Amino acid sequence: NRFDIAFTSEQESHIHIVFIKSRTLLEAKWYPVGTMLFQSLCSMVVGLECILRLTPDVYCDTMGAAFTYPVVHYLCNAKVVAYVHYPIISTDMLKKVREQRPSYNNASVIASSVTI
């Protein structure tokens, strides 16, 4: 067990891990322009799939898809917890946007735009 957390068999019977097919929508490779925006918007679709597959008492995010939290909380009143090592949007990404620096997923025409 990766996190060294011990559960009783009764507790384990209440834990369900669900594979989410739409999670590929969160991969940056699909969005060469507006990567963070589209990942954030698509994360709501992923959150919806999560609760349609299994309505949770507790929703645990491990991908950093924060836009899923209101979807899950308001549609099924679940508690939301997160353990995120590599978030979808990080402070270094936001810094590049703020400084208008082009990157592999932030074309110079977009990066230099004042309105975008």
How would you describe what is shown here?
- The chain is mainly alpha-helical and 116 residues long.
- It is 38% helix and 7% strand.
- The chain contains five helices and two strands.
- Strands 1-2 form a two-stranded parallel ribbon.
- It is elongated.
- The mean pLDDT is 85.
Quick recap of the structure?
With 116 residues, this protein is mainly alpha-helical.
Task: Record keyword descriptors for this entry.
116 residues, mainly alpha, 2 strands, 38% helix, 7% strand, elongated
Query: Using DSSP, what is the number of strands?
Result: 2
Helical fraction: 25-40%
Distance between the termini: 44 Å
How many separate structural domains?
1
List the uncertain runs: none
Write down the overall geometry: elongated
Arithmetic mean pLDDT: 85
* Rg from alpha-carbon coordinates: 17 Å
Going across the major beta sheet, what is the strand order? 1-2
Name the beta content range: 5-15%
| Number of continuous helical runs | 5
> SSE order, as H and E?
HHEHEHH
Q: Name the structural class.
A: mainly alpha
Q: How is the biggest beta sheet arranged?
A: 2 strands, parallel
Oligomer classification = single chain
